[in-house]
Specification:
Strand content: 15-25%
Number of strands: 15
Order of helices and strands: EHEEHEHEEHEHEEHEHEHEHHEEHE
CATH topology of the largest domain: Rossmann fold
CATH superfamily of the largest domain: P-loop containing nucleotide triphosphate hydrolases
CATH architecture of the largest domain: 3-Layer(aba) Sandwich
Largest sheet: 6 strands, mixed
Radius of gyration: 23 Å
Distance between the termini: 20 Å
Oligomer: single chain
Length: 445
């Protein structure tokens, strides 16, 4: 099964990691500030370049052991480096190398993963030569300026070149399913019910599961790996130390899974952290199913389920295509449906759309409702082709692709879903300039 690769940005504080993260993901997700150590938690965001989709993670700065938060931040960097596919070490091009720079490079090289050295703030490089930084032992060196955008394309080229050499997953690899959710929503109980035995430790105390708990079973002769993860709280509620590691392992499980089952608590209803987790899953391009667990504990009549389903649909409008099932790990209600849904979604994620019918559908949609323009600039979609599966990735070639509004992209996606069954999986749409001399990309959720 395809796995969305993880690219980690590491380095000491205040070398421009967060600014680079924002530039590469075309976002303002990371907080940037001149005060060293602004980033404490890891920031994750989807990124894509040249047809490659990956997840970029911006980590806290690596510093000498100091207070408890600094020590935890260093642990976080080490953990992210362990699970990353490619590591980008950022140093300040305008300053001499420091002990922390050398420690960051040593940490990255020690991981055995492909490493790129980004010379951040390259506009301050002056007459210095990048070769001076080869003392760190990293062969691939790319000067970049996040503020001016200089070198970021070269950096993305270097990243995707390394990603292209990643080994293909084994043909007989199991379908990976991850149970994701807040603490104490019943993930371990669902796992035990599916396995038919007491595999995970179950307790009413929140946070019992600290690590990832995996087991393989067969369903219709198909190997399926079930992963139970530690519950993720809101970032501000995540404690340092063991729980920080658990959170990182859970995020790693999302990126290694094919399909994620987001477990909700029927007695609590949907909370903000549930929505955040769904966003993380979609950003990673994974299949998504919503599980409303503990349904046995809810007082209900013949309309309760319909009312709850309507409420959930309203709250998860951004993932309206995700199936919702009501379960009880205690009674076994609908738990077996998890495996049935997983295999069906996996088939949809392998869908190959024929180019001819796909373009005819898009032409029909454009004729019915062309994209809006700006003054004398009118976007025009010329051609579309499928460029990936698991999840489905479509590339549109157009004039003025940057003027195509997100609502128009949603219009295209909604009609694609009406024509083809993509329930349970995101569709990623990429918009490029028709001549290839400029590009604008957008991952669809």
């Amino acid at each position: 099964m395809a796995v969305t690769p993880l690219v980690a940005i590491v380095g000491r504080p205040n070398v421009g990691k967060s600014s680079l993260f924002n530039r590469l993901t075309s976002s303002r997700q990371a907080i940037t500030h001149d005060i060293a150590g602004t980033t404490r938690d890891a920031n994750y965001a989807a990124a894509h370049w040249g047809g490659y989709y990956f997840t970029l993670v911006d980590t806290a700065g690596l510093t000498k052991a100091g207070d408890e938060i600094e020590v935890a931040a260093q642990d976080q960097v080490r953990q992210v480096a362990h699970i990353a596919d490619v590591i980008v070490v950022v140093v300040d091009a305008g300053m001499d190398l420091t002990t922390e720079d050398r420690e960051a490079a040593k940490l990255a090289l020690k991981s055995g993963k492909p490493v790129i050295l980004a010379l951040g703030k390259a506009d301050t490089l002056g007459d210095r030569y990048p070769d001076e930084f080869r003392a760190l032992g990293i062969k691939e060196i790319v000067p970049v300026s996040a503020i001016h955008g200089r070198g970021t394309g070269d950096l993305l080229d270097a990243i995707t070149e390394l990603l292209s050499h990643r080994g293909a997953p084994a043909k007989d690899a199991p379908l990976k399913l991850a149970l994701i959710g807040r603490p104490n929503v019943g993930k371990s109980s669902i796992l035990n019910t599916l396995l038919g035995k007491q595999q995970a430790v179950v307790s009413p105390q929140a946070g019992t599961t600290r690590d990832v708990n995996a087991n393989v079973l067969r369903y219709h002769n198909r190997p399926i790996e079930l992963v139970d993860t530690a519950g993720l709280r809101r970032r501000g509620k995540i404690e340092q130390g063991v729980e920080k590691y658990s959170a990182l392992r859970t995020l790693s499980a999302i990126h290694e899974a094919d399909i994620c089952f987001l477990v909700l608590d029927a007695t609590d209803g949907v909370v903000a952290s549930d929505l955040n987790l769904a966003g993380q899953i979609i950003e990673a391009g994974k299949g998504l199913v919503l599980i409303m667990n503990k349904w046995d504990a809810v007082e209900k009549d013949d309309k309760t389920q319909a009312h709850m389903a309507a409420r959930v649909a309203q709250q998860f409008q951004f993932a309206w295509w995700a199936p919702l099932i009501f379960t009880s790990a205690v009674t076994g209600l609908h738990v077996a449906k998890i495996l049935e849904l997983a295999t069906a979604i996996d088939e949809r994620r392998q869908t190959q759309l024929a180019t001819g019918p796909l373009n005819r559908l898009i032409e029909k949609l454009i004729l019915k409702q062309p994209p809006a323009g700006l003054k004398n600039r009118q976007p025009k979609i010329n051609y579309v082709t499928q460029t990936g599966t698991n999840p489905t990735q479509l590339t549109f070639f157009a004039t003025y692709p940057d003027l195509i509004h997100w609502s128009y992209k949603r219009y295209i996606e909604n009609n694609l879903r009406q024509e083809h069954d993509f329930a349970g999986t995101p569709i990623q749409l990429e918009f490029r300039h028709k001549h290839g001399d400029a590009s604008y990309t957008e991952g669809k959720r």
